[in-house]
Amino acid sequence: MSVPVWSRHGRPGSAVIAAGLLLASTLPTQAFFHNAPDLERGQQIYVTKCAACHGATLQGQPDWQTPRADGTYPAPPHDENGHTWHHGDAMLSDYIRRGGQAVLDGMGVKFTSGMPSFAGDLSDADIEAVLAFIKSTWPEPVRAAQEERTQAEATGQ
C-alpha cells in the first residue's frame, strides 16, 4: 500500500506534512524559512557563555572604561550604551572566536584585553546567533550604524 503524497482534494497528504515537520525540526540555528540566526538560541548561548561578565541585561560591568590594577578593563556593555556596535560583524566574530588579546595583538593595538577565546566552545553559527541576539536589543538607529560598519569592514573601508 502506498502513502499518497497529495490527497485527492489537491492538498498535501500526510507524507508531505510529515516531511515538512521533519525538515523544520532539523534547522536548529536558522529561523524557519529564513537564512537568519535563531535569536532564542543566541539568547541561550549569551546567558550561559557571556552574561557572567557582560551582564544579564547586556549592561556590562561597572567602570568598564577604567582599567583595573592588572591593566585589564572590566567587561563592556553590549547594549546601546557600550561600544560593541562601533565594530563590524567580522571584528566582533573574530574577537569572540580568538579572544580579545589575540585580535588586538594582531592589529598592533597596545591594550590588555581580558576577553577569552571561545574557539573551542562556540561554532561560527553559535557566534552568529549570539551577535544576532545582542543586535536585536539595540534601537534601530544603532543597528543601522553597526550595519554600516559591517559593510565598510567587508569592503575594506
Q: Summarize this, please?
A:
With 157 residues, the chain is mainly α.
Q: Please give the number of β-strands.
A: 0
Q: Give the low-confidence spans.
A: 18-33
* Distance N to C terminus: 63 Å
Q: Level of helix content?
A: 40-55%
Q: Which strand-content bin applies to the residues?
A: under 5%
What is the average per-residue confidence, as pLDDT, rounded to a whole number?
A: 84
Label this structure with key terms.
single chain; 157 residues; mainly alpha; 7 helices
What can you tell me about this protein's structure?
This protein has 157 residues and is mostly helical. Helix content is 47%, strand content 0%. It is globular. Residues 18-33 have low confidence and may be disordered.
Compile the SSE list and pairings.
Blueprint (H helix, E strand, L loop, with lengths): L13 H12 L13 H11 L1 H4 L34 H10 L1 H8 L16 H13 L3 H16 L2
Helix pairs in contact: 2-6, 4-5, 4-6
